[in-house]
Design goal:
The chain is of the alpha/beta class. Helix content is 22%, strand content 21%. The protein is built from six helices and twelve strands. β1 and β2 form a beta hairpin.
């Protein structure tokens, strides 16, 4: 038999190397290298197709020292909440390489960005009359005359949007098909609503008049919105007015250190080639 002391030393060395390989212990040099590549703090479960095991996808806020990406607002006046969400979208890549829109309900404004976060244009907008971040169940199939004033909300959230036709045959940007919410040229058929005058008002409260849809100036729609979404889907972020953006989107302040609160469920990939047709059985978009 061999020397007992040598055998013991060899066993100890092998045990230590096994622990090191398993990551249960580390040398100072190994610890220093690993600290710069630590994973983010949050884990979100993504369920795969039926019959398969759930996969765990790791998400993270930017780590200290990493170069942050930001949206470019140019000279546009925007609220802190709108800037917070736009910067987060660009830094996190939540828009998945698509153009995106920020709709600030509190300021009743729309900001349209290209896929890289460069502002294409901004405009005042008419939004839902009622304050609220949710839609009434089944409102997408209700006639306009059946929608009560307190039900006329523009729902907050992240929506995959694309260009399509309304039942009137006009091009619109469908934001949320199930609740019949779209972005379109301002509707001026009802003179009593004074929509054109409201759109020109400097008061955000004056611009709360629609049944839920986002009304914008015709020229802004034609020159900014339509070109931005031609040939592609995009993302529309409707900012909440009761809850916080962090609650709704899981957003973080760009440049902040990683924190558990910054973890979020990864955005679902867009489905290519999906076309939403306006069905005759569906009520008109909530103008």
């Amino acid at each position: 038999m061999g020397n007992p002391e040598k055998i013991s030393a060899l066993l100890i060395r092998q045990i230590f190397q096994g622990l090191l390989a398993a990551g249960l212990v580390c040398t100072p040099a190994h610890a220093s290298h690993g600290a710069a590549h630590l994973p983010g703090p949050g884990l979100a479960e993504a369920v795969l197709d039926a019959g398969t095991s759930p996969a765990v996808t790791q998400t993270q806020a930017p780590l200290a020292g990493r170069g942050s990406k930001r949206a470019h607002f140019e000279q546009a006046q925007a609220s802190a909440e709108a800037r917070h969400v736009a910067h987060w979208v660009v830094d996190s890549g939540d828009n998945l390489g698509r153009p995106f829109v920020i709709i600030d309900k509190r300021d009743a404004k729309v900001f349209v960005f290209d896929a890289q976060g460069q502002l294409r244009g901004d405009s005042p907008a008419l939004l839902g009359l009622a304050v609220g971040d949710h839609s009434v169940p089944g409102i997408g199939t209700k006639k306009l005359s059946a929608i009560r004033p307190e039900e006329r909300t523009t729902p907050a959230g992240r929506f995959v949007a694309n260009l399509d036709k309304s039942l009137k045959g006009e091009e619109i940007l469908w934001v949320d098909y199930d609740t019949a919410i779209s972005m379109h040229r301002v509707v001026t058929s009802n003179a009593r609503e004074r929509r054109a005058a409201r759109l020109a008002s400097s008061s955000p409260s004056e611009r709360r008049i629609s049944y839920g849809c986002i009304n914008i100036p015709a020229r802004f729609y034609e020159n900014v919105v339509s070109p931005a979404f031609t040939g592609t889907d995009g993302i529309v972020y409707v900012l909440p007015e009761i809850r916080s953006a962090r609650d709704v989107f899981g957003s973080y302040d760009v440049g902040e250190e990683a924190s558990p609160q910054a973890a979020r469920v990864p955005a679902q990939p867009l489905k290519a080639g999906v076309v939403r047709w306006a069905s005759p059985a569906r009520a008109l978009d909530k103008e």
